[in-house]
Amino acid sequence: MTTTAIIGDVHGALGPLEALVARLAPGPAHRLVFVGDLVDKGPDPAGVVQYVRHLHETAPFEVVLVEGNHEERHRRYHENTAERPKVARDMAAEAPELPALDAQLSAGDRAFLAAAIPFLRLPDWDTLIVHGGIPASMASFPDTAEEAARLTGAERDSFRKVLRTRYIEAETGKFLALGRNQPGDPFWADVYDGRFGHAVFGHQPWLEGPACFRHATGIDTAAVHGGRLTALVLPEDGAAHFLSVPGIDHAPRRSEDWPAHPGGNLRLGNRRAG
């Protein structure tokens, strides 16, 4: 059996990440899972990518990267520099951090980010790790990352919304793009019924600490907004628990637009026997 530590959005905060890994002190019987968004916002996104890649390639424990919307955006930008240069130029004009980071990453770094998986299931804990969220309109979910990779067209586009879901339409449960929510449209985890297991997610920052919903747990604890960097630890023996270290106050925040915090009492059940 393995102890799994799920680490929230790092966003270029290398110092807190190094401190958190030191506190976790992972060994051969451990697994580190990153919930995505290693990059952007913070002072050293390239350093974070290179540090996590180094762990992945050399550490005696398993390292898994779940893709976040920021990794996905950088991947699209790099692909467009070769395939659609005008689109890449437009992306760079809107987000200068795209060419800045691209220039600092090696081909190996970019390949590491491109190999990120869209989700991870932990059957022993009946847990599904995604970066963003799960729209209430989603009736099915792939069993494996390989199955997800075979999706095409509208099915693929619909599934990929798990990278960036925050709010959903009150009447239909469908994904709402950033800023499109209206009063009464719920944050997805407020209404998620656990149909695909207990969801552990990042994407939405929570300054008050981990956000513990009935069937979901948010672990982006605003590491670059003056909050903390958090890991949800699922031990080989014993109860799930949080471990965190101080973050940095580096990036501006719009906390007035953030959803209400649901409380910090973890509702994840115990590990399944056997």
Description:
The chain has 274 residues and is α/β, with parallel strands linked by helices. The protein has a single domain (3-257), classed as 4-Layer Sandwich (Purple Acid Phosphatase, chain A, domain 2), CATH 3.60.21.10. The protein has helices at 14-24, 45-58, 69-83, 85-94, 97-104, 107-114, 145-149, 153-159, 188-191; strands at residues 3-7, 30-34, 62-65, 120-122, 127-129, 198-201, 211-212, 216-218, 228-234, 241-246. The strands form two sheets. Strands 3-2-1-9-10 form a five-stranded mixed β-sheet, with helices on one face. The protein has a five-stranded mixed β-sheet with strand order 4-5-6-8-7, with no helix packed on it. α3 (69-83) crosses α4 (85-94) and α3 (69-83) crosses α5 (97-104). The mean pLDDT is 96.
List the helices and strands and how they pair.
Elements: E1 3-7, H1 14-24, E2 30-34, H2 45-58, E3 62-65, H3 69-83, H4 85-94, H5 97-104, H6 107-114, E4 120-122, E5 127-129, H7 145-149, H8 153-159, H9 188-191, E6 198-201, E7 211-212, E8 216-218, E9 228-234, E10 241-246
Parallel strand pairs: 1-2, 2-3, 5-6, 6-8
Antiparallel strand pairs: 1-9, 4-5, 7-8, 9-10
Helix pairs in contact: 3-4, 3-5
